[in-house]
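Step 1: inspect the first sequence and its tokens.
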Amino acid sequence: MTSNSRKIGFFTVLALVIGNTVGNGIFLIPSSLARFGSISLLGWVFTSLGVITIAMSYARLSRMHPAVGGPYAYCRKGFGDYIGFQVAWNYWISNWTSNAGVIVGLIGYLSICYEPIGSNPLFSFLVSTTILWLITLLNIMNIKKAGNLQVITTILKLLPLFALLIFGVGHINTDNFIPFNTSGETHLTAIVGASTITMWAFAGFETGTVPADNVGNANKVIPRATIIGTLITMGIYIGISTIVLGIIPACDLVNNNAPIADVGEIVFGPIGKWVVTIGAIVSSIGTLNGLVLVQAKIPYAAAKDKLFPESFAKTTKNGEPIVAHIVSSLLITALLVMGFNDNLIDKYTYIIIFSSLTTLITYLFSVVSEVLFYIQNKQLDKLPKWPIFNAFLAFLYIFWALYGAGSTQVYTGCLLFFISTPIYAYLKYKNP
């Protein structure tokens, strides 16, 4: 049982939702989307509409079953142990790969402050891993302090973004939105491709459901924070992306490691670049902190249910899952080693598409779990039509986004999904 001294409230959960969603994606994704041109804005719109349907489903799920592990707990209750295990496996992978993407983005903005961080691969790696392990240590030692850091970094990251939203409109040049589609692909293919990349930027809106054991009055706090946080995030993403494309031509965004900082310089002068850069750094650290907080909860919850190795359930005296934290951060470190000499934008784009894929698998099973909850509770005859219709829309969106991930990522994701099956069989053998 979690003591009151370790409970977190509405604003901390809201900060988790916004902080884990508005990470450094908004500070770097415009460069990943630049090859599509201004049609990428439709990608943001379609993703926003899809995400809000998933968020509403998660809000209802968190009321019906406020349990530690969030998506994992919902899917296990809805589908049983095997799918519960698969969701825990995929969602855990998406957590630590997302963290690797956040760190790559962080390096891009730190290099503005000190150029060798971006140009020297070894120095970049050492800085990355130092930040990662310091934040991991903080989360192991005290989740309450980690939660306080999340609130502070969320406030600090939003200030420069709101400033750009207010003052950047006057600097937009509508000629920069032409040509509409620069990808060389059909409009539909370009929108689908852009939507898959923007999906990664939204990944994290569900993380407020994960640490349910640490949340006071969880069945009320979590759904409210999830919906409000997602709506705020939608407005920020669409607004900022429109301003960036309207100020910097798409051709100049390609391989730009710090596009929002350049916009800050155009709008506010040299000081603007530094304010936005510091905001991006704070944003990245806050997102990394929030995702590290979450990344250990999934394998911990699954281990308690004997669906992950027992060692993942080991905790410190404060009740924090120490083994799950250490293993997750070791995997992030390994991923950073594998991409040691890659181009920053290429590395970042690949990570976020792959992470989006594993996250989408989690979302797919989650929204169907909501329908199964109603069936299990024998509520289908008296069920309001909207939740079922909403779940159907969410399912269609997720399937559409999976298609947009591309054959390479889907192939890799399928291998990860199926390779875990023998692990599940072994765990069942050990814990019949």
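Step 2: inspect the second sequence and its tokens, then contrast the two.
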Amino acid sequence: MELLQSTKNKTQQKYVKDFITSFGFIVLPLTENIHHRASIYIEEYTLASGLRSGHALVAATAVENNMILVSSNVKHFKAIEDPKLKIFRPS
């Protein structure tokens, strides 16, 4: 969702979908547990850090699936203590 949200037209949307497919990424379902955890993150962190719902869902998905959250934009996730966060630095 986050990648598609940043697109500006249908061509970019197709590019993103092709990118996800070509690299074999798995799209994980939005479960009740992920929704619940994301809601808790919103309540705990939005007022203090400006956490947005998309980032809360990404973090909650990583935690609920015991995955490492990899991001180049650490500021969106640094307030949340739960996810294992790895900083991605494109060269």
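Step 3: confirm your contrast with the notes below.
DSSP finds four helices and two strands in the chain. The radius of gyration is 14 Å.
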